Amino acid sequence: MQVRRTAGDLMEIDMPDPHSLSQDDVMHWPSHMGQGATRLCALDDGLLLGVTQGSLHRPTRIASEQPSCLVNLCFVVDGQLGAESESPLPSLRGGAGAAFAWFLPQARWTTELSQCHRLAALDLSVSREFVLAWAETWQLSLPNAWVSAVEGSDVPLIEVGGMPPAMLGHARLLVNQQGQTSMQRLRRESMVLELLSEYLFARVEAQRRTPASCKLAPIEIERALDAASRLANRLQDPPGVNEIAREVGLSGSRLKLAFSQIFGCGVYSYVKALRLEAARCALIEGQQVKAAALSVGYTRAGHFARHFRERFGIVPGRYGG
Fold this sequence. Notes:
- The protein is an alpha+beta fold.
- A hairpin with a 6-residue loop joins strand 8 (80-85) and strand 9.
- Helix content is 41%, strand content 28%.
- The longest helix is centred in the middle third of the chain and has 28 residues, at 182-209.
- It has 2 domains: 2-209, Sandwich (Jelly Rolls); 216-319, Arc Repressor Mutant, subunit A, CATH 1.10.10.60.
- The protein contains 11 helices and 13 strands.
- The chain has helices at residues 128-137, 144-150, 165-175, 182-209, 218-232, 241-248, 252-263, 267-284, 289-295, 301-312, 316-319; strands at residues 2-7, 10-14, 25-28, 34-42, 47-56, 60-65, 70-78, 80-85, 92-95, 98-103, 108-113, 116-127, 157-162.
- Helix 3 runs antiparallel to helix 4 and helix 8 packs antiparallel against helix 9 (289-295).
């Protein structure tokens, strides 16, 4: 992966052939962008993982050719990003907790990265053959929006959704997975496959529980994802439902409906689960129990321990080890 040229806020890059990657391919961002890097890793045949992580001094756009044979997924862990096509199709944008999927034959995409102190995102490119084989192996149905796209009819796929809290925690751990040993790569591959499975299961379940008469408008999905991102950044003192709804321009009832459809839970349950997932990740990374609890807004140790045990089946003091 190499920078072809930069002009203003636009950076054009050349993507390598996934089959030529024998080890991670790392592109460090130019200094005028910020401090960070994008890392590519070819995993199983037909599966390519990209990890973008760092701090941006200025908004930046990154242009690259997308192989038309691949379904692309993007999971936003921290920060804000978006993507736009040269063709007249909907744009994709969101913050922490957002998930995008797209398949656009013969399309060129530009990824937009917002200025932020902390950006982390996962990009997963999957061949259509891989998706079909995966569904057949596990005898699972694909989301309706995926069927035509992956069965070879070259129908565009544009999908905007969210990650349930457990999935966001999983993605956060995957961002920090590195190393080139066979065991490290195998571990990374298993985590990617688990993330893909979680995403497809979540989309099928969201499709099952959403009546046709209650479907959300695109602007409502965008505003609900904005609310989720804001909540993820304010775990120590999260706002109430009506307050966060006003901030993003929705009524409290529409925000509750949106969270139910996108994340499969209510707003309060989403915040609670997100806090516990963030604390779990902090414990895995070596933080002490008290520090992990305080970092997500728990000031009473007993309260935190009880919620943690209810969620994960183990007390937090034993989890980190």
